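Just wondering, can you check both lines?
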Amino acid sequence: MTSKANDAQREFDERYITSSEIMEKLSVTRTTLLHARRTGKLPDPINIQGKIFIWERSKVADYLDAWKIVLDARRGART
């Protein structure tokens, strides 16, 4: 990759988060992520060609933080 391409990728990664990153960060499945979108735990994503969903990190960070607290509490209660 060229330096310009690397810069563009870095800017993209800093500005956006993908559904795959969210699933990895929160240890949730795609089904759980889709349910969260439908129930308002996440704002509407940017839909790319109907296949890829991304969010602006700045707009979704509070949602992810709150969701993580809930998930951690539930997971802690199970152990």
